[in-house]
Amino acid sequence: MRLVEALCELFLPAACASCRARHATGCGLCEHCAAGLPATAMAAAPRTPGTPPVVVAGTYEGALAEALNEYKERGRRDLVPVLARLLGRAVDAVTEEVPGAVLVPIPSTRAARRERGFDHVAALCAPLGPMHRCLRARPRRDSVGLTAAQRRHAAARSLATVPRRTAVLAASGRPVILVDDIVTTGATLSAAAAVLDGAGVRVVAATTTVAAAV
Ligand SMILES: [Zn+2]
Q: Distance, CA 42 to ligand 1 centroid (Å)?
């Protein structure tokens, strides 16, 4: 059965990431679901103190949420163009105000990257502008069962800088826009801004594909 499914994937048009209908648009979503994607970027207001101003492409619902899940959980790289285009609207909204900014993607852990086969945020970030991969993710424990305070503490320790790359960025004086796939409490973005700030890098904003309710 698996072989049949694999052959179908090869020779039939892809299944829409949202409604699962077979289609041939080439963007991972059928025309109907693609038409329901958000039209404009919007500001989000995560509750974690120290989170930079956040602009998101949309909220975590409908075809956008389905597409992001399929991309992250099933490694559907055919969704990169449509997700990157949406994320690009959020990035554009910020770069209009901050010309010359550099994009810094929030990195996956090594374990997640190995499992997925690629770094999913960097892949979305790459087509959008000058990208500087100067953060690395520390190995994370499973956050199931942690209290909100314990989660905040874990998030604050989840990222570190890559020293040499960060020094180059700090010396350039260029402002930074953080890029991630999803924002909920803002704990990860806040942690990223804090470690970069500690290394002399100025984070002016963050952008994500979606904002999700906590
Ligand atoms: Zn569809």
A: 24
Q: Which CATH architecture has domain 38-211?
A: 3-Layer(aba) Sandwich (3.40)
From ligand 1's centre to the CA of 35, what distance in Å? 9
Q: Write out the E strands in the chain.
A: 42-44, 54-59, 102-105, 135-137, 159-161, 176-183, 203-211
pLDDT at position 99, please?
Answer: 86
pLDDT at 1: 45
Over residues 139-152, the pLDDT tens digits come to 877 767 777 778 77
The reported pTM is 0.90
Domain boundaries, the chain: 1-36, 38-211
Cα separation of 200 and 198, whole Å?
A: 6
CA of 15 to the centre of ligand 1 (A): 8
- Ligand 1: distance of its center to the CA of 213 in Å? 24
Query: How far, in Å, is the centroid of ligand 1 from the Cα of 21?
Result: 6
